[in-house]
Design a protein that fits this description.
Layout: E1 3-7, E2 11-12, E3 18-25, E4 34-39, E5 45-51, E6 58-60, E7 68-73, E8 78-83, E9 92-97, E10 106-110
Parallel strand pairs: 2-10
Antiparallel strand pairs: 1-3, 3-8, 4-5, 4-9, 5-6, 7-8, 9-10
Length: 112
């Protein structure tokens, strides 16, 4: 059974940084594109970043490009999202997914 557990969300001040982690299980992680999505209050879920199985190709939403870094460790079946220079617009629940299943998400709140 495919399973994702996100962690690392917290309350952080504007301009701060956070690193999100996602532990994946139940499938061959190294075969899949992986993605971070987020759902901001009152908004639809949106794609934040994507990474190919080998990490050779990475894509970011325009709103996070230059501030967020997606990475993965296939040997540990882990996905990461380094988030820098956070703003209130980044407040959301963040999810990792292979687009076949979803985790419960981790809450990121950016506020002074």
């Amino acid at each position: 059974q495919v399973h994702f557990v996100e962690s690392g969300g917290a309350l952080v001040q504007p301009g701060g940084s956070l690193r999100l982690s996602c532990a994946a299980s139940g499938f061959i992680f190294s075969n899949y594109w992986m993605h971070w999505y987020r759902q901001r209050p009152g908004k639809e879920r949106e794609l934040v970043a994507s990474i190919t199985p080998s990490s050779a190709s990475i894509n970011y939403a325009a709103s996070v490009k230059g501030r967020f870094i997606i990475s993965r460790d296939n040997s540990k079946q882990m996905l990461f999202l380094q988030m820098n220079n956070l703003t209130s617009e980044d407040t959301a629940v963040y999810y990792c997914t292979n687009r076949n299943a979803w985790g419960q998400g981790t809450q990121v709140t950016v506020s002074s």
